[in-house]
Structures are given as C-alpha cells and as structure tokens.
Amino acid sequence: MANERSAGCGFCNVLAQEKGLDPVGTAAHFEDVIVIETRLPWKRDIYSQPGALPPEMIDLRAQWQQQYQGGRGFPHRSLLVAPDAEYSREGFRRVMFYARQPGMIAQFDKIEYLVPESEIGALVWALYEAREQLPAFEQYRQPDDDSTRDLLVCTHGTIDSACGKFGYPLFNLLRRQYAHDDLRVWRVSHFGGHVFAPTLMEMPTGHFWAYIESEQAAQIAGRGGDVAALRGHYRGWAGVAAGFVQAAEYELWQRFGWAWFDYAKSGAVLAQDSGDAPRWADIRIDYVSPDGSDQGAYEARVEVRQFIQTIFSTGSNATHNYPQYAVTAVRELVAEAGYAPA
C-alpha cells in the first residue's frame, strides 16, 4: 500500500499526510448507529432515493436532517456493509444496531438481526420509532453475534476515490489474514474523514483509525504491540465528544495501553476558550476498570497547537482548517481527598 500511496499525489489523504495532518479528535460522536447489509454498488444518492434501502430508512434520514437543521444535533448514524460470502445468507439481510447507554461506558450496546429482505424496513422503523413492535422480530435475533468485534473499512469510492483506492486493499488484507469467529471484517459505506484513508471504525467499542497500513492493521486486529507505534493513526473514540475530549482520551490510552479500551469512561469539558475556533479546553475523564479495582479521574489541559489547511475531498479545491490538538498538562485526581466520580 505504501508504493500506491506515494504515487497518488492527487488524493486528499496523500496530501494530508504530506502536510503532517494528525487525525486525533476527528472520530464521529453519536448516540446510536444502525448498520444495514446492502448490495453494491452504493451510489451517491443511496440515502435519498428508495431502492437499495427501504423507504423507512430514507424517511428516517430525512427526519434526522430536519432535526439537525433545527439545532437539535445529529446523534444518529446509518451505515451500509457489503454482503460477504461467509457472513451473509441468501434472502436475508443483517442489521446491527448499536446504542450508547448513559454514564461511563467501554462500548456501545449491540443488537444484531438477520431478517428476511421484505422485513428490513419494518425492523428499521421499529428500532427508532415503534419499539413496541420489536418483539415481532425476536425470532431473527442473533445473540451469539452481539459480542462479536466488527472492523468496518471504508471502501466507498463513489463518495471519495481515496477510499476506493486505499480502502479496498486494507479491507482485503484484514479480511484474508485476520478475520475469525470473533472478529469480522466488512466493507462499509462512507462514515466521514476520507482525508484519513484508509480509515476504519471498530464496533461495538467505537474506535476510529486513520492512515492504516499492514503494520497498524496487525496491531489493531490483535490489540497488541506498543501503542506508541499508533501515534498519528488514532482518530478517537465515539464514546466522548469530538475534538478536545477525544484528544484527552487518546493521551490516557497512550499511558494505560490496550487495557484502557476495556475501561468504562466518560468525558466532559470543564472550561473552554471562547469563540468559534477555541484554542484550549480543560477536560475531565472519569474511568473504572472492568472489575472495579482501578478507578479514578484525570483532568487535562488540551490546546490547539496549530491549524492545518488541506482539501478534505479528492478532486475538490475546497479546504478545511483541521485543528491539531496537544495535551499540555495532565493531573490525576484518584489520590486526592476531594475525588468523586463526575
């Protein structure tokens, strides 16, 4: 992949790396995600034109967009995964639904279904708008897959050609060499950040990654090796707000190592610079280990050390100023007399 990358000087991700764009703080932040198995090809208008997706999903997307324009935020995400010879079943489609619970979490709660194609729209609507109807779909539940790790590699070339050129080789590598009964690898539709291609997200934990090649792929799939080697490849964790909070969470992962991903956590902004482009924030991260034996909190000062301006889409001249975060101070609260979980 490295040779292809150096030759692709017109791709947004190549230009971003040449400029030294650090991806930390750019992970999506959401309350829930629905992932629907959908046949290729995925056209640019797939979310607005019924056909590949049921009309219920189109209606939901339109509803979410109206709410966003009305200032109510955009806490939902919808994604597509391509059918797989091993994972898929003829006449059925897989639906994975992830939801964030209140408070400290280590991962999103997951419910997985394998439903007849004719039932897909009704299930999607029930998950969001008519939960009293969900018992009718219990027969299609796949509880054994609720704890399965899923690596979702963006290969959505019709959105940005960088994801097709660089994403597919990564998907192919992960699928052939690292997939097993407890780790599935999927081709996924656009989830933002093609400037970081090849990019992937891991569910149900909600971790996002950038500029992944074979060495990083091996570490992520196996959750092993020195985490310092993944500096510059971690976009952040969807369990906390993007930007300053994700940068603080990243710093603690670098200190704790891979075990940190299994800790339940929450993050909050205590104070922040004013203006449309704040330059600093004070962050608090609370945490607890799976067995409860290690718990506490850290406060961190996170600053924007610079902005890097670069195109965010291949073939476009439009640019974006990406803040580059740095953690300049960290203070542990666990040993202090006044510590209490936030």
Percent of residues in beta strands?
25-35%
The coarse silhouette is globular
What is the domain tally? 1
CATH superfamily: Glutaredoxin
Radius of gyration: 20 Å
The class by helix and strand makeup works out as: alpha+beta
Q: CATH class, anyone?
A: Alpha Beta
C-alpha termini separation = 44 Å
Q: What is the string of helix and strand elements?
A: HHEHEEEHEHEEEHEHEEEE
Strand order of the largest sheet: 6-5-7-8-9
CATH architecture: 3-Layer(aba) Sandwich
Structure, described:
The protein has 342 residues and is of the alpha+beta class. It has one domain (2-243): 3-Layer(aba) Sandwich (Glutaredoxin), CATH 3.40.30. It is 22% helix and 29% strand. It contains 7 helices and 13 strands. It has helices spanning 2-7, 12-18, 55-69, 120-128, 161-177, 214-222, 244-256, and strands at 32-37, 76-81, 92-99, 109-116, 149-154, 183-188, 200-203, 207-209, 234-237, 264-272, 280-288, 295-311, 319-332. The strands form 3 sheets. A 5-stranded mixed β-sheet has the order 6-5-7-8-9. Strands 2-1-3-4 form a 4-stranded mixed β-sheet, covered by helices on one side. Strands 10-11-12-13 form a 4-stranded antiparallel β-sheet, with helices on one face. Strand 7 and strand 8 (207-209) form a beta hairpin. The longest helix is centred in the middle third of the chain and has 17 residues, at 161-177. The chain is globular and about 55 Å long. Residues 1-8 have low confidence and may be disordered.
